[in-house]
Write a structure and sequence with these properties.
heterodimer, A: about 70 residues, alpha/beta, three-stranded parallel beta sheet, B: about 140 residues, four-stranded mixed beta sheet, two-stranded antiparallel ribbon, globular
Chain lengths: ~70, ~140
């Protein structure tokens, strides 16, 4: 059971995980090719591009940082 | 993102949902794809009426979250939303990690946050700002 569920594990999803991952906050991720399942966190971060589609993880085109 | 709403809208009811997007037209990098008097966050809130939608993290590049600094300044996340408790909880969680956070107000402020994030992104994409830098808050 995580406190925070993050959709997406790209640059931002990973960076936000590190910021929140402290003291007792547990974080898990749902990735675009994961089949739909339960969301454990009470806080959900949508760390996907606004154009993201399931099953089609966006290739990383930009340099580190965003 | 529409797929997330389609598949998970029921589960998102009652939860805090944080929108970090910069809703750019990624083909042109020259406009936002939301109406000028609205925001992606407002659209999300309309699609998830039982969720506590927050707009956060769209004005801080990933590298500045990792480094906790924008140049010599502490990285500051701006968190807008209509639910004061949800905002306060996220602010605490972020500050516990040594990153600063400010509440700029209600979810209507997401329009300004998206405009600001868009501006910053175009500057980095145009190589006028590094992806490890950006605008900083000094206080």
């Amino acid at each position: 059971m995580a406190d925070v569920t993050i959709f997406g594990a790209g640059n931002m999803g990973t960076a936000i995980d590190k910021v929140l991952n402290t003291g007792g906050a547990t974080v898990d991720h749902i990735r675009s090719d994961d089949p739909p399942g339960p969301i454990s966190g009470d806080v959900v971060i949508l760390a996907v591009p606004h154009t993201a589609r399931a099953g089609h993880p966006r290739p990383v085109r930009r340099p580190v940082g965003r | 993102m529409q797929d997330i709403l389609d598949q998970y809208a029921d589960q998102l009811a009652g939860k805090t949902v944080v929108d970090i997007t910069n809703p750019l037209n990624f083909e042109t990098f020259d406009s936002l794809v939301v109406p000028a008097d609205s925001s992606k966050a407002a659209e999300l809130a309309a699609a998830l009426p039982s969720s506590k939608v927050l707009k956060a993290f769209n004005t801080t590049f990933a590298a500045t979250l990792g480094a906790k600094a924008v140049g010599p300044n502490k990285t500051t996340v701006l968190i807008a939303g209509d639910d004061a408790d949800a905002k306060a909880a996220l602010i605490s969680a972020i500050q516990a990690r040594g990153v600063d956070a400010i509440d700029p107000g209600a979810l209507t402020r997401a329009r300004e946050l998206e405009a600001f994030g868009f501006l910053q992104l175009t500057l980095a994409a145009g190589e006028k700002l590094p992806w490890t830098g950006g605008f900083a808050v000094v206080r």
